[in-house]
User: What shape does this take?
Amino acid sequence: MKKKLFFLITIIIFLIIVVIIFYKNMSKISKIGHTNNSQEIVENILNISSYSATINVKVISNKNENQYIIKQEYQSPDINSQEVIEPSNIAGTKIIREGNKLTLENTSLNLSSIFENYQYISSNNLDLSSFIEDYNNDDQSKYEEKNEEIKMYTSSDDCKKILYIDKKTGLPTQLEIKHTNKKNEVYILYNEVKIK
Assistant: This one.
C-alpha cells in the first residue's frame, strides 16, 4: 500500500513538472513568434530608452560623396554621442550632446570645446533618436510591412526619412535621409546595434 501511494505521488509530481516545463516552453515560443508583429516592433523602436550602434554612413551631395564609420550611443532622454572611427584623418572626433550642451572632442589632438544653448543642437539627423523624434512629431508618419522588412516613413522641415527594420530581429538595418532643398542624400547602414 505504501509503495502504491509512493508510486502514485511520484507520478503526480512528475506530471506536474512536465506540465510546468511544457507551459514555460510554450510561453517562450509564443513570445518569440510575437516579435513578428509589426505594430509591436514599431512600438519597440519608438520607445527605445538607450542604444549603441556602429554605423556606415554615406553622404552624397551635388559635388561629392563621403563615407564614414561612426559609433553612436544614446541614453534617454537627451544624451547622445557619436565618435568617428573612419576616415583616419578625423578618427577620434566625438560629438556629445547632453540637453542644451554640445561638446566637441578630438582624442588624438587632445582638443575639447563646449557650447552651451547651442541653437542647432536638435538638428543631428544621423542618430536614431532624431528619427524617432521626427516620427512622433509628424502627423503623416506611417509604416508598412514588406516580406521580412518593416519600413517606417517620416519627414521633418527639409528632409524625408525611411527607417528599415528587420522583422525577425526587430532591429534597424538602414536609414535613408533625403534633403529636399539641398539635394543631399544620406544612407546609414547599421552594423552592430544593441537596444535596451
